[in-house]
Amino acid sequence: MLVKTSAPFHPCTRMYCRSCSRTSVSAGPRSSSATSISSNAKKPLFQELHSHLSSKVEEASVALKHAPQRFLEALTDSIFKFTDQALHLSESNFAPVDEIREAIEIHQIEGAIPDDFPEGVYIRNGSNPLFGALHSTVSIFGQSSEIWVEGEGMLHALYFTKNSPTTWSVTYGNRYVQSETFKLEKARQKPCFLPAIQGDSAAIIAAYIFNYLRFGKVNKDISNTNVFEHAGRMYSIAENHLPHEICIENLKTGSIWDIGGEWDRPFTAHPKVPPGSGELVIFGADATKPFLVIGVVSADGTHLKHRVDLKLDRCTLCHDIGVTQKYNIIMDIPLTIDINRLIRGGQLIELENDSYARIGVMPRYGDAESVIWFNVEPFCMFHLVNCFEDGDEVVVRGLRSPDSLIPGPGPALHNGNTEKSELTGYDKSLKQGTKEEFLSRLYEWRLNLKTKAVSGEYLTGTEFSLEFPMINNQYTGLRHSYAFTQIVDSLTSSSNNFEKVNPKYGGFAKLCLDKRNNTEEHVSESDLITTEYHWLGRDEFCSGAAFVPRVGGSHEDDGWIISFVHNEKTSISEVHIIDARRFEDAPVAKIILPQRVPYGFHGTFILRNPMK
To answer: What is the pTM of this model?
Structure first.
């Protein structure tokens, strides 16, 4: 309130009015009356002054309370300059798209959706940077950059509903995962979190400090990696934070899932359901102790049945966990997150090739001392294919590479011509040129629990690099005969002598695990498995593929591969449905989408009936 010197505030006017309103006859001596009137007239003035001063004190208190925050924001703005990471022409479909929120009905379908295809939702997660691009910052501390797996999560969903035994209704929708950090930056209409993974060590440390002082955390909750279902509920997840519950019908973001307050740390992007239990095996890796904690969630999702610190002496960036009927499978690989290394001037995330690697076999509800560790040759791996028990042995299958694509950017990954060959049919092979150190191949370890011996072999050759594996989830933790992957087409782009990682996938592989054929002379230990290929057309690339089992199917591979596919020449995005038993044939259906869908990460198919 401001004090005005206009007539309404004049003391005489105030005293006169109030005295007139309170008394009409003067009783007693004149001097006494004057004193009484003077005293009464001062009260409103003092009250107004007190109110004004109180208001100003309150405003000053609020200003002082927020002064450190304002100072920090001003200091951050003056020190750090955000810049957009430019996309090469070959990376056009990594650019983000707008939300459409309301589902759009699809009318253009080439081929036909099979009559026995199940009703449900095909949903895929992926990076969709909020302000048009991934960002870097430049400051007095140096440069730091967001890496290719960052960017706010956006869900893309295709809804399959049967109108009659032979007709389908298909709709498409997308929506951001609205984490707390997403809502914070959205409200401010600018990027706020400083990149804190890759770059100059001083810049990353500064980003850690400034992010924590301003927001109470060092990184954004991007929730962009995977989607999974448990106890009839769907969740979006990235392994740096807790899952967010998602409404399957409209993709709205609900609350975070901390398992009734019992889980207070990061949450794996690849939780597993052991055979027959309905429980969910999870883990959380962190850069500070405890480095790795394993958990088992109840089948109804209401509580944590088991939690144990494995007491590792390093933070390993293990992206996946395996399960068998009785065991949890732990991958302790030398791709590490090390704050002390960062302080010494090194990188936060680094593959330590001169360090050790081991695989742990842990009883489902065991403790740290119960884990049987098997030392193996150092390697890098992000995704397991499956694990199962075979007599005294535990079999572990995963996609192994000598080096890591995270964090990136890295050295040139191309070897020779990076253009796709001209494809005129679905039986054409695609020769891509990934350097050997980044070649991801199917590998099998056999861990003998009785003798503690380890044996291992590659099951696929060096012709193609494989990633994003999937199986019929009914065989998770059990012996299986088939697996499917996406095939890496290209890994990097170059612009102004700067190379960065942005993988693209030009087809699919079907791995026939029980069939062997010797296709390469230099493979002496054993024959390689038989592999079938489904190639996409020229300029077409896929993401988020999932296996959809046929309801009541009599074979493990009885079902379909469903995947988002984008044509970079026409800028048209589609969803392809491929018969897994006639894998090399053309898709049985191509669903043309109403807008471009950027490349993303993991997808899944959720049956409609069990959903809540």
So the answer is: 0.84
